[in-house]
Amino acid sequence: MDIDALLTSAAINTGLSVLLFSLYSILRKQPSNSIVYFGRRLASLNNRNSRNHFSFERFVPSPSWIVKAWETTENEILAIGGLDAVVFQRTLVFSIRVFSIAAVMCLFLVLPVNYYGQEMKHKHIHAESLNVFTIANVKEGSRWLWAHCLTLYIISCSACVLLYFEYKSITKMRLAHITTSPPNPSHFTILVRSIPYSVGESYSNSVKKFFTDYYSSSYLSHQIVYRCGLVQKLMVDAEKICTKIKAVPNGQPSLKPCCLDNERSAAFVIFKTRYAAVIATQMLQSPNPMSWVTELAPEPHDVLWSNLCIPFRQLWLRKIVTLLATVVFMVLFLAPVTFVQGLTQLEKLSQTFPFLRGFLKQDLINHVLTGYLPSVILMLFLYTVPPTMMLFSSVEGPVSRSGRKRSACLKILYFTIWNVFFVNHVSGGFLYAFNMLSSVGDIPVELAKAIPNQASFFVTYVLTSGWASLSCEVMQPFSLLCNFLKKHLRRNHEDSSDGLVSFPYHTEVPRVLLFGLIGFTYSVMAPLILPFLLIYFLLAYLVYRNQVVNVYIRKYESGGQLWPIVHNTTIFSLVLTQMIAIGVFGIKKSPIASGFTIPLIICTLLFNEYCRQRFSPIFKKNVAQVITRNRFAFESPSSCLSKVQFFFSCSGSYRDG
Amino acid sequence: MDIDALLTSAAINTGLSVLLFSLYSILRKQPSNSIVYFGRRLASLNNRNSRNHFSFERFVPSPSWIVKAWETTENEILAIGGLDAVVFQRTLVFSIRVFSIAAVMCLFLVLPVNYYGQEMKHKHIHAESLNVFTIANVKEGSRWLWAHCLTLYIISCSACVLLYFEYKSITKMRLAHITTSPPNPSHFTILVRSIPYSVGESYSNSVKKFFTDYYSSSYLSHQIVYRCGLVQKLMVDAEKICTKIKAVPNGQPSLKPCCLDNERSAAFVIFKTRYAAVIATQMLQSPNPMSWVTELAPEPHDVLWSNLCIPFRQLWLRKIVTLLATVVFMVLFLAPVTFVQGLTQLEKLSQTFPFLRGFLKQDLINHVLTGYLPSVILMLFLYTVPPTMMLFSSVEGPVSRSGRKRSACLKILYFTIWNVFFVNHVSGGFLYAFNMLSSVGDIPVELAKAIPNQASFFVTYVLTSGWASLSCEVMQPFSLLCNFLKKHLRRNHEDSSDGLVSFPYHTEVPRVLLFGLIGFTYSVMAPLILPFLLIYFLLAYLVYRNQVVNVYIRKYESGGQLWPIVHNTTIFSLVLTQMIAIGVFGIKKSPIASGFTIPLIICTLLFNEYCRQRFSPIFKKNVAQVITRNRFAFESPSSCLSKVQFFFSCSGSYRDG
């Protein structure tokens, strides 16, 4: 690939993006699409009067949404999207900052060194190959490799410094979130599972006895979890249909208590103070650690009711099974893809289906089959990944939706890093990559060989997959289509908030982190990728702000639990970059540069360990000082009781969700 | 090695052991040695009247000590040596049981299969090579390998069943230990470290303020930890000398409070109830997880006073540094040994020191140098291991002696398994073994190749190192020598309990576990090792009982924390055995036997995971139900206060220890 081809590709993608963003700015002004593009706003305002007045302005593209997204403050994001949305924004801000520094250093120091790295006659800049701008062009044993080493130091140090301050401020925000969030029944509630069965006593009585025995001063009340039997399920379904026919306003508890419920060995227990609830979750309750298992209850909207009925004793087995399933899925994912793609080779296809032979000889069909079909097949397979991982995470048995999303996020992250980053870098394809697993030590060397040559692929990847994903995100083609079909085929002109979804952190966080990983590993080796990456992050910053404010609703949140994932992945990216650099310096026969990079790895790992000591406990445990400080505010038993009522009513209404 | 040689070696070692045990039975009857062989008894009785009457009986060996050791009940061991001693005894009982089953299966099923494994003319049994009795003698593709596979199943299953019941009963004992142990000031006390410095306020005031603020209902009192300054140290030394001269009775607090102490950022905080103390250690105290760090205080005798002054912020760094130092020491240990042993080769020695040439030509010198010196050098180097690991564990910064011992135990365990087991099995020596680390997957195959051939080495190892270590343990040659020198050279005839030590779990547990590992890996491959191993375990059972009852004092205990180490190592041994079996079955071209072993590995790992869920939390956290149940017994403030006084007096007397 030469510079001209790169510029052409960039121009095409820029044009496409501008076109799609303009289209978006028109579409969003159409009242019929308001539920697609302003779902959250409509849901929060409960104002569904369509502004159906016609005006010319509606069909002129305008950048007003960009201005609005830019002007939104962090406090507004916090109020609208919660701490998780802020954490996601901070991830983007961190990326923009660190890659700005990297871009300045790399474009002004590393790029000239690479370009003049060998004594050769340079062609006109347009016709120059991309390879001339990578470290591959620096001759072996060159003294100029100190430039790369220095840049690596500057990027690593600035990344660590920025990470530190982000972690610090997010920790502070999390503590503030815990203290200042409005009084919530889940703060006083714990979930007790695996209540031991005793003959002649109901679970409810066991719970009452246990907590009045051991937590007499702080125990308030409890609610056993029920499982809907078959009859119950039919009744719920019938009720749902009734609700739809009568159009009963949504969101109110409508499920009556029913004598057909079956008691389960799980219960919500409510305490008088928040502190007492936290204490009850920190201690082992019983000499058998697998009975009377306690944890803080999720918020009512966050509870994954279907998983409450899973016996606790199964959980460890379920975790192992899903872990194995995930690993197998991850490692073998490319096998069926490769197989199906192999079928698109014309010879094989015509061998398998001889009657197609005449059809396949046509030129257009030929082009489509060989040019587009493989990537379409890959894309289709990739679309199955988030639902599959979400399914795995459900089977794992978390009791909260946020926990399930977090677990799916991790799984998709591992999947993306393995299948997009590693497998693409290993020349022999996935089978070879699989073999490499057995000799872990060779991976950095293999990557060091591959990275300078794969630069053009990943520049294109940023341009196409990165930019296109943002256009796609902002356009919401799937919702748009559904909405269109609903309105024009089913003649249903009423906007309903049924289809509103919460922010898909489990797909977006891994995507952003993957681009971060690509950015770090390529920054020093092939700096030309950085401008395109910076544009991606800037666009992402605007697009996701717009989406948080307008589109996605906040049903529940994890309180910033995403940040440790971001932090750890960034540290992983940094260390991988440094190890690859050692490999590349080794190949370039510069032992001094290699040697100088080793302390950098050690320092990065020490920094990570320090952060693990200093900040990460806050994300795992509750802080006594913080909880004690605000416990007195909600201590009147009457206010507590009303909250408990609310909690149970939520349980009722969501039990069938 | 043939059977005759093996029998000769066994006869020599048996003779030697009988001789040493007889010598011991005489030596222990000599009143002058009573402090060596009855140290614990004398210390507990405070009865130091030497029974100096002469009798002929004193010089006749008798097996009375064996009978006494055999008759000691587990309750007596518990009362005398504490839970740790019982756990050690249970480890030996477990080994005896599981290897009895293994011996029956292997000697009656596997041994004949091995012996008649190939169609060959057998020599007379005396002249038969040991190899004929190992799996190496079974021909490739033999159908009789099912016998080995079945035996492996029976051994693994019985080991898991026995492990389960041991874990269950030890968990129960630990819970009983927590509830029924006599009221101890440390139960009510927590150690607070990293108290933040605030200008114009002493640490003592900060602690008081913090705990009256947040634990007003349960906080009782506190004591700041002081560091002895230089002047203080000199005074302590002076006082020690005074004590020696005046022969002031030992064990009473004699250190007066001194104005030269420097306050440290650590304190002991005493609560009114045990439950409150535990709660204070379970919560994060402050938004900065690196300040106000709490943990349960060790017993007064268990506190490692010198480490209390280490700033908490250093701990994570110290842990990393000692971990690295341990790994380097472990991996490189054999390098200097090999080098020094190389020097004992005569040619090299005479090249380096030409003037020795005549001296080295003498036959005796020659034999000594080549025959014994290498193993003596290895032994001397091996003696440096426990003190080195203990030093590493001290530097790590644990606040309790039992914690330090446990950490050293783990380090020595890893060291032993690596340097005795792995390095001896890898044909190319330690450098090759080091290379193998990079391709972890090959280790089982390498071991599978090596194990049948190394059988004779390890049979000899059990005979010499195992049996000899027991004779050495019971004889206590070092203490005996010290005692002799003290009495006869320094003319000091007074027995003092200064030299009494607590049980060296950190050296004995790894030794027993190593023999367990050898036993499991060789049981199916070379069953002839099992009788010798069984004798070792039976002897060990008697010897260590005797030592617990008579020799070692119990200064402190960890409450059974050794068992998880034993359990995990046994599971590791089992899985390693199974992996080696897969390798051996593969070499013997029996894919069915290999395939049948894979589910066994999975089941063993699942069993381990189950135990981790079911039992191990009890060894990490306190159980609310158990602590709540016995909190009311000690709740009167006056009894508490007297305990606190006692604790502080202990602090005083041990601060210089």
UniProtKB/TrEMBL annotation, chains A, B:
InterPro entries: Csc1-like (IPR045122), CSC1/OSCA1-like_7TM (IPR003864), CSC1/OSCA1-like_cyt (IPR027815), CSC1/OSCA1-like_N (IPR032880). GO terms for cellular component: plasma membrane. GO terms for molecular function: calcium-activated cation channel activity. Residues 187-248, 262-307 form the CSC1/OSCA1-like cytosolic domain. Its main location: membrane. The keyword Transport applies. Pfam families: PHM7_cyt, RSN1_7TM, RSN1_TM. Belongs to the CSC1 (TC 1.A.17) family. This is MEMBRANE PROTEIN DUF221-RELATED. It comes from Salix koriyanagi.
